[in-house]
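user: At home tonight, take the chain set out below, taking as long as you need, and be ready to discuss the fold:
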Amino acid sequence: MTLAQALDTALKNNPELAASRYELNIAQARIVQADKRRNPELALEFENFAGSGDTSGGDALESTLAFSQVIELGGKRALRRSVAEADSDLVTLDIRAQQLDVLADVTRRYIEVVAAQERARFAEENATLTQKTLDAIAARVKAARSPVAEQSRARIALTLAQIDQRQAALALETARSTLSLTWGRVDARFSSAAADLFAFEPLETFETFAARIERNPDVARFASDARLRDAEVSLAQAQSKPDFTFSIGVRNFRDTGDNALVAGFSLPLAVHDRNQGGIEEARARRAQSDARLVASKTRLMGILFALYREAVAARERAEALRSHALPQARVALAQTQSGYERGRFSFLELLTSQQDQLSISEAAIDAAADFHRLLAEIERLTSEPLTTQDLEAPLP
């Protein structure tokens, strides 16, 4: 499985993303609701009955059937829709941010699978090398060229190497299963992650990454949030304008059998409450959005700088270990093995040389994995595609 396949599978099948898509449907439903007019009212009123004198009984009964409608002023309906649309834009950005989080998580887990594969391979090589060492020592003991104690130490070293090999294999299975969880499966249905952990493409400059920080959904969200706050300010100002209610109906006079039209309207007097508090709250939230934008950019830039410096250091460490330290360790091991066979080095020195090679190999794997993980974090911050060419290159 390639990284691109893992990312595509997660986008299609990730359970959290599947649930979050309903949020957009919910936001669209709020737009539909915000665009609805106020419902009219139908009222039936009875007067002049069950009283005294001429109004006793129902002879003087008057009944009125009236229809009334609230007329909204100040464009409140359109402003409500604008608020709902701006809120929908925020939901869209939140979903985009969640998608990037999932993609970054998949990338991290994919890198861990690749690193676990490398660790398993080195553990297997170490176990094989330790077995060969034991066989050589057994032959030397049989020829009375080495003490029996060295053979016992070699058996212990082999046992430890085989334990490491089984643990590395178990860690690999766990990493593969953890990756599969991102698309809703516990069992991994792929045999291996096709990637070269030590293939490094040129790293772009910090200034290039910093210029892309505006693409971060967390930053873009503040732009949409500002639009929402502007719409809320306009709506709050519109709500300071009272709506009036118009009504028209028919009145029936039972004593004469006559009918007559009745009409009227009501208009609240905005003497005390002109939604002053609501307007000030909306304006404060708008100013708060700008302040949060500045704080968010500052925070993200600081995180980006730290991640970039760590990525540079991890790459330098991985390249130095892989290109210089590891070849030297292999040469030293070969020389120690040759010297041990001629009796110039002790078994302890041979075992130390083997452990040095294994430690350097593990350190190189860890450094390379750190670099790719850090690069994935940088790409998440800058909202860049997470299918880097580094990890797409198949292993030779």
About this structure: The beta strands are 41-47, 62-71, 244-253, 258-266.
